[in-house]
Amino acid sequence: MAEVNADLERSLEGPVKKFLSRGLFGARPRMSARAFSADASVRGRRSFVLWRLKRHPVAVALVFACAVAALFRLPLVSRAFASVPLVGNAYASFLRQVDLDAAYQAGLLTRLDRTLTKDGLTLNIIDAGVDRDAIVVSFSILPAEEDPSGIWARMDRGEVMVAARIGDYGTATFMQPLNREENRIYGVARAAQPKGWRSLLQNLLGSKVTLSFSACEKEPYFEPPFDQDAWKAGRTLHTWKIEVPIRTVEVEPTVIPINKELPAGITVDRMVLTPWRTVVEYTIRNPEAGNAESSQSWRYLGDCFIITTSDGRQFREIFCPVPENWGGEEVEGEVHFEAIPEGNLSIAFKIPKFEGGELRLPVEEGATTSCFDGEGALKVETIKKLEGGVEVTLVLESELKLLGAEVHLVDGQGRPATTGPYVRYGRDNTVILPFVTDLDSGPYDLEVDWIFASEPEGTVVFEVKVAGE
User: Fold this and answer.
1) Is residue 394 left, alpha or beta, with left meaning phi > 0 and alpha meaning psi from -120 to 50?
2) How much is the pTM?
3) Cα gap 303→305, rounded to integer Å
4) Residue 242 forms beta bridges with which residues?
5) Ramachandran sector of residue 201 (left: φ over 0; alpha: ψ -120 to 50; beta: rest)
6) Residue 326: DSSP 8-state
7) Predicted pLDDT at 272
8) Fewer CB within 10 Å: C terminus or N terminus of the chain?
9) Residue 428, Cβ neighbours under 10 Å: how many?
10) End-to-end alpha-carbon separation of the chain, Å?
């Protein structure tokens, strides 16, 4: 009997999740009431059924209630119902902003609603989920008291910063600005999924992780001469900890083979679609085999891929990790995009251009050097002197699109200066480079280790129609 129940649970969980994730509005009878009443094949039975329903409405309600109760006795089906909760507009908007909307709609986020009120704040752990790469926990923070000198008021004034951490894993936290209408802040914490036996046990048995919050005073991150409005955590004011149950919900990915060879020694292997994200996997015949340092430039390769729908919507790139096996003759990498719904899609590719080696420029406005085999020129556009530092703006004069560069300021003896915070790239093919001039007086030069660019417009290399489930 237990085996039968287990089979029944597994057979019901998928359809129930699918039904619920599309909403109850998706349920429709196969035959309308008018068609049913006019169908001669059910006329005799119809009169009997309607008579029984009218005579015994309480019995009908009891039968229906028992059926629903029996359904919820199946734990997998119960989880399916629990995993598709109703949300408000503000939270739904936040899920779209952090690329979790499709996973939520597919029932991959488990509703938790764990609440802790302490030290003037109420922390609400909303949802949690695990995909192949990360543990994801969404939460909200709201005031527990109205105190002008309390922690919430200080957060609102920008004096205090709050960060979250999942267990002992490296965690990235994103928090939306205060939603004034709801008087709360929505946030999400992501941590790398454990590998090896820890991941296996977690997938089989489920587990708990501790979600830790800390509220700290804000301190300037950088010392003068750089004041870029960046902050770091100072003195810790309060800490909170909440245990969160997590469990991996297996998702069968849709794998679309591509096997398209592109210029620059790149082959697009496949596209992998899940409700969590869309991944484009590629292979590079490494032009810099044996040179591990050049791998950093290829983190910009994600900017060369563009995924659009037939109506022109462009999907947002989430991140492009640096390939782990850089240095070999063939390198496998991937680019992660937001989850893609059904529809006609196209992948376009902008051919990348890479130049490494010794490009050198004097720190003089107007100084220029040729690059990319004459397709462009790198020029010192402006020099802004700071107290104890200098800010140099370089511009790539070319039809190519500048994606990244590694540049150092060196003195006459070749010693590098300290690079300041926030190397900034502009839409006009510029890069602004701050340096701390803590060396002896010049002359100074700019050494360009590498520069990475791409074609301005992409060429469509693959088209596909993605069908909904």
Assistant:
1) beta
2) 0.69
3) 6
4) 211
5) alpha
6) B
7) 92
8) N
9) 9
10) 32
Question: Could you say which DSSP state residue 205 is in?
Answer: H
Does 358-448 carry CATH code 2.60.40?
A: yes
∠ Cα 9 12 16 (to 5°): 130
Which residue stretches of 2-127 are H helix? 2-21, 33-38, 43-55, 57-72, 75-82, 89-97, 101-105
pLDDT at 40: 42
CA distance 233 to 221: 8
DSSP string, 387-435: TTEEEEEEEEEESSEEEEEEEEEE-TT-PBPEE-S--EE-TTSEEEEEE
- At residue 59, the 3 state secondary structure works out as helix
Reported as a single tens digit per residue, the pLDDT across 276-326 is 989 999 988 765 544 555 555 666 788 899 999 888 889 988 888 777 666
Q: Where in the chain is the domain with CATH 2.60.40?
A: 89-246, 254-353+457-466, 358-448
Comparing C-alpha atoms, which of 242, 255, 421, 456 is closest to residue 349? 456
* Span 372-400, pLDDT tens digits: 999 999 999 999 887 778 889 999 999 99
Measured CA to CA, the distance from residue 104 to residue 111 in angstroms comes to 10
Q: Which is more confidently placed, 446 or 77?
A: 446
* Residue 20 DSSP SS3: helix
Name residue, tokens 């196969």: 30
Lowest mean pLDDT among 84-98, 218-232, 419-433: 218-232
DSSP 3-state of 236: strand
Residues with Cβ within 8 Å of 12's Cβ and at least 6 positions away in sequence, in order, are 71, 74, 76, 77, 80
For tokens 């009443």, name the residue. 37
Q: How far apart are CA 269 and CA 406, in angstroms?
A: 29
Q: Which CATH class is domain 254-353+457-466?
A: mainly beta
Closest CA to 282 of 327, 313, 251, 320: 320
In the numeric block, the tokens 């199946």 are attached to 74
For the chain, the maximum distance between any two Cα atoms, rounded to a whole number of angstroms, is 103
CATH architecture of 89-246: Sandwich (2.60)
Classify residue 455 by burial, with Cβ atoms within 10 Å: 0-12, 13-18, 19+.
middle
Three-state DSSP string of 135-194: EEEEEEEEECCCCCCCHHHHHHCCCEEEEEEECCCCEEEEECCCECCCCEEEEEEEEECC
CA angle 321, 325, 328 (to 5 degrees): 135
